Amino acid sequence: MTGLLAAATSAADKRAAFRAGLTSGRIQRLPGAFNPLVATVIQEIGFEGVYVSGAMLSADLGLPDIGLTTLTEVAQRGGQIARVTDLPVLIDADTGFGEPMSAARTVTLLEDAGIAGCHLEDQVNPKRCGHLDGKSVVPTAEMVRRVRAAVSARRDPNFVICARTDAADVEGFDAAVERALAYVDAGADVIFVEALRTVAEFERFRAAVPIPLLANMTEFGKSELIPAATLESIGYNAVIWPLTTLRLALWAAEAGLREIHERGTQSGLLDRIQPADRLSELLQYDRYTRFDSDIFDSGIDRNR
């Protein structure tokens, strides 16, 4: 049964691997997965982890990223994705879905879902996408309480608490550094600074903050798209591509649907559609069939 129905690697082992990876000197690459099957592909290709984006989950539900999703929805989707992959899963927990006590409850539910870590941000609740204008951040002391609540609630010490600050785009670079250092003192394991612009800014932030750092390389945002190798060379420990897989899938789906609408058939799309045998391979149909046959055969009473 190893690898069927659920990942072979335990949640505890995935958390330990994520924490070790963050201090390995090799950047941990975490593409966004909008469903479990995408996470399966991410693992097969050879990435170090999987990211579950709040913006991607909102979009998948047909909602803008303005704090409309719930803790239940986030934990459920995160658990579905974590179930199928041996890779650690990092999930976007927005502002913790309420007051510091809610942030604490968020951590417990995400641990129960098999997640390896989460990030909490210092925006006012309800939040906005980190690369949109018009954001507001809470006072530093309020975010410190949020982080402390999250840290105190975890039961597995390897569950990673990442503190995200949106202050660089609101209060300026120096304020973002000051906030990050306060979040480090509050117990954060990783700092995620949103919406820096250039390699030089990423380098300056790396020089100012003493713990592992995560970079967001979302396309069409405010940050320069910096290759993972460059981020690694300047000392970043993890990188996420939150929406790329969803945007790729939606672009292909829209193009195909328009052709079907115009031509009445998908026959001209077959060279752009994943073959049936490849989907069967990803879903491990053969292994499930063998398992079912073995159970059936072993259950026969041959003395009757």
Structure description:
It is a single chain. This protein has 2 domains: 11-242, Phosphoenolpyruvate-binding domains (TIM Barrel, Alpha-Beta Barrel), CATH 3.20.20; 250-298, no CATH class. Helix content is 46%, strand content 11%. The chain has 12 helices and 8 strands. An 8-stranded parallel beta sheet has the order 1-8-7-6-5-4-3-2, with helices on both faces.
The third-level CATH topology of the largest domain is TIM Barrel
State the separation between the terminal residues, measured CA to CA.
Answer: 29 Å
Q: Stretches where pLDDT falls below 50 for ≥5 residues?
A: none
What is the top-level CATH class of the largest domain?
Alpha Beta
Question: What pattern of helices and strands is seen along the backbone?
Answer: HEHEHHEHEHEHEHEHEHHH
**Which whole number gives the mean pLDDT?**
93
Strand content: 5-15%
Helix share bin: 40-55%
Would you identify the CATH architecture of the largest domain? Alpha-Beta Barrel
Overall, the morphology is globular
Number of strands: 8
Read across the widest sheet, the strand sequence of neighbours is: 1-8-7-6-5-4-3-2
Largest β-sheet summary:
8 strands, parallel
CATH superfamily of the largest domain: Phosphoenolpyruvate-binding domains
User: What is the structural class?
Assistant: alpha/beta
Helix run count: 12
Radius of gyration: 21 Å
- How many structural domains? 2
